[in-house]
Amino acid sequence: MEGFCFRFWRFAALRADVRPIQPVMRMAGEQDGAVSEAQMRECGLTARAQRKAVACGQLLMVEARVAVVVGSPDTWHRRLRVGLLALGPDAWVSHEAAAALHRLDRTLFEPLDFTVPRSARRTTNAGRVHTTDCVGALDVVTIDGFRCSSATRTIIDLAYLGIPPIRLAAAIDSSVHRGLSATRVLADRLAELRGPGRNGVAALDRLMPDTGGESPLERTFLGLLRRNQLPRPTTQLRIRRANGAVARVDFIYEALRVVVEVSGRKGHASDAERQRDAQRRNELTDQGYRVYEYTRGDIEDRPAWVVATMLHRVAASATAHVD
Question: What average pLDDT does range 210-222 have in this prediction?
Answer without folding.
Answer: 91
